[in-house]
């Protein structure tokens, strides 16, 4: 099959949802245009932004960094070493290698050094790893951005991620989450940095194809802690629908983002610092339970922006500290 755009080269990527098939060069153009259109439509980024790109070592975030650099944005990468045996080291290697290939050195936060490696922290407080991981990652994304004077934090969530989350929120009528789900979470006074998801218009398959054809080496394994995440069930359901009816995902999500959708508040009306991770979508977060109106204040313990006395990260650390000291006390008896 020939490329639908140049009509000369052989097509390498088939995209039924766009009724198109492209050769590698035309696909690069198409993909970049999808991302820049997504940025422009929702005004996610401005030319003068300093962007902190959160890179996990997976395809989405490395592709995001690649595209943003190619588009001329000023970027730095942030990798959080979660302290997960083997997986974290392999992820870090990919991030460092990619960064080096672009003449960059990423910022690295090591949770083991911070005293909160995810597996041990989750065991201590008897919580799901993903839940602990979400709180800790959000905290460091914001803290590193605020300390480094970045104007915006970008993550690699793609259309599959966002629609899976939307489906989960709809099926359980999580009205609070629905009102705030958006590729743009505005910043707030008091150190809350704007967060954006520039890949919201591109699917996982498209991102993987871009990464592969560009020769970006990324980790292909899933996090071992997320094997039974509910988000995978929603992704699978949506994939089956998409296979039968190509284009459904983007129609579903764009319809949801329509400003006239009564389920959503505009992003300007959504001051929330603590976006729930997908695995958390079925639970009421502390922010939601307490309401999210008003301006955030400084956490009494660490100074991070929060709507409560101390931020959820400090509360988590306190619970871990208590659990550890109880364990030590029991051990010395
Ligand atoms: P996930 O929640 O694992 O689906 O990841 C969503 C996005 O969060 C990724 O595309 C990255 O932008 C970011 N992210 C996830 N894990 C990390 C990490 N360990 N370090 C930095 N950014 C991360
Ligand atoms: Fe956070 Fe796996 S527990 S990425
Ligand atoms: Zn705090």
3D architecture notes:
The protein has 333 residues and is an alpha/beta fold. The chain has a domain at 42-273: 3-Layer(aba) Sandwich (Rossmann fold), CATH 3.40.50. Helices cover 46% and strands 11% of the residues. The chain has helices spanning 24-41, 59-70, 87-101, 118-125, 129-147, 159-171, 175-180, 204-214, 230-244, 248-257, 286-290, 312-332; strands at 13-15, 20-22, 50-54, 74-81, 107-110, 152-154, 184-185, 194-196, 297-298, 305-306. Strands 5-4-3-6-8-7 form a six-stranded mixed beta sheet, with helices on both faces. Strands 1-2 form a two-stranded antiparallel sheet. The protein is globular.
List the helices and strands and how they pair.
Blueprint: E1 13-15, E2 20-22, H1 24-41, E3 50-54, H2 59-70, E4 74-81, H3 87-101, E5 107-110, H4 118-125, H5 129-147, E6 152-154, H6 159-171, H7 175-180, E7 184-185, E8 194-196, H8 204-214, H9 230-244, H10 248-257, H11 286-290, E9 297-298, E10 305-306, H12 312-332
Parallel strand pairs: 3-4, 3-6, 4-5, 6-8
Antiparallel strand pairs: 1-2, 7-8, 9-10
Helix pairs in contact: 1-8, 2-8, 4-5, 4-12, 6-9, 6-10
